[in-house]
Design a protein that fits this description.
Number of strands: 14
Helix content: 25-40%
Shape: globular
Structural class: alpha/beta
Radius of gyration: 20 Å
InterPro entries: Gfo/Idh/MocA-like_OxRdtase_N, Gfo/Idh/MocA_Oxidoreductase, GFO_IDH_MocA-like_dom, NAD(P)-bd_dom_sf
CATH topology of the largest domain: Dihydrodipicolinate Reductase, domain 2
GO molecular function: nucleotide binding
CATH class of the largest domain: Alpha Beta
CATH architecture of the largest domain: 2-Layer Sandwich
Largest sheet: 8 strands, mixed
Strand content: 25-35%
């Protein structure tokens, strides 16, 4: 099949080479066309590795070569790179989080509307088979109205020892920006993004500042690390529903834990693993899933859906206004420390 979409990559770090480039290489209607990175040598290596014909020397040059772009830069540059691409008439898949502030997100959203181009944010947990099945059950009314939501995105002593994850200037934050945002987005999406009434948050950095490091994911510079390793929040919604949220890179817990739980008026749903919890006919029932029709490859599903959106065959699975709400909530959690 002849390629319909020429795609480029801005930033060729780990997320680009481990997730996005391999995924888009498997989409038949895509031609991997160009890469750009501030480290030109690194860009040339990646282009050779994935047989990508062009290494651009600037973002502007890359945007002249492609129909769509994947932004894989540090978080600080999401906003400016996305604006430049959208203003050039290029579709954008931007790594999460959307941007550092709600104001930046609004500018990106406005640019997308003005240009008519697709702007999608790479919250790939929404493409997890369990997440897609859970959304189907929620939309079918199986849990009724959400009452209490619990979200845990917790890792035991796994501060990333590579890249710029511990640099606030480049990333805007730590575990909340990097990891917690995924499950926060997922829970809000499942609950259909209810209007937020209040956010009370707190962040912590004590554990990762221990000079006697015990860390599974490599070493990092304690002296220069300036982001949080743990965050929690209590969120209330206009409907009266509430959310208990916690995320960490370095929690002192027995094992890593990912939880999304929604207790509703008619039932409850849990993810990882997926269960539907109901009552009726004098019974309490917990239903598990034996098989799902959804693709198990989240990265490929995300790439395919983005390209379908660019071709006008589908709506973006992660709309910019939704991703903006996630960033706004994160911003308010950080404000709890000020």
């Amino acid at each position: 099949m002849k390629a319909s979409i020429k795609i480029g990559f801005i930033g060729v770090g780990g997320i680009a080479i481990d997730r996005h480039i391999p995924a888009f290489a498997r989409v038949q209607t895509v031609a991997l066309t160009a890469v750009y990175d501030v480290n030109e040598g690194r860009a040339m290596e990646v282009a050779k590795q994935f047989h990508i014909p062009h290494v651009a020397t600037s973002r502007a040059q890359l945007l002249q070569m492609v129909d769509a772009v994947v932004i894989c830069t540090p978080n600080r540059f999401h906003h400016e790179a996305a604006l430049e691409a959208l203003q050039a008439g290029v579709h954008v898949l931007c790594e999460k989080p959307m941007a550092l502030t709600e104001a930046e997100c609004l500018e990106m959203e406005s640019a997308a509307k003005t240009s008519g181009c697709v702007l999608q944010i790479a919250y790939h947990y929404r493409f997890h088979p369990q997440a897609l099945a859970a959304k189907q059950l929620v939309q079918a009314g199986e849990i009724g109205e959400p009452l209490v939501i619990k979200v845990e995105a917790l890792r035991r002593r796994k501060v990333p020892g590579w890249g710029v994850f511990t640099n606030r200037d480049l990333q805007g934050g730590g575990c909340l920006m990097d990891y917690g945002c995924h499950l926060l987005d997922l829970a809000l999406w499942l609950a259909d993004f209810p209007p937020v009434k209040s956010v009370h948050g707190q962040t912590y950095a004590a554990v990762s500042r221990d000079i006697d490091q015990v860390n599974e994911w490599g070493t990092y510079n304690v002296a220069t690390m300036n982001v949080e390793d743990h965050a929690s929040a209590y969120i209330t919604f206009a409907s009266g529903a509430t959310m208990l949220f916690e995320t960490s890179w370095a929690a002192n817990i027995p094992e890593d834990r990912e939880t999304v739980r929604i207790a509703g008026t008619e039932g409850g749903i849990d993810l990882f693993p997926l269960t539907l919890n109901k009552s009726g006919q004098g019974l309490l029932t917990t239903t598990t899933v034996d098989w799902s029709m959804y693709d198990t490859d989240q990265s490929l599903a995300q790439a395919q859906q983005f390209i379908a959106s660019c071709l006008g065959e589908a709506e973006p699975h992660v709309r910019p206004e939704e991703a903006r709400m996630v960033s706004a909530m994160i911003e308010r959690i950080y404000e709890g420390n000020e």
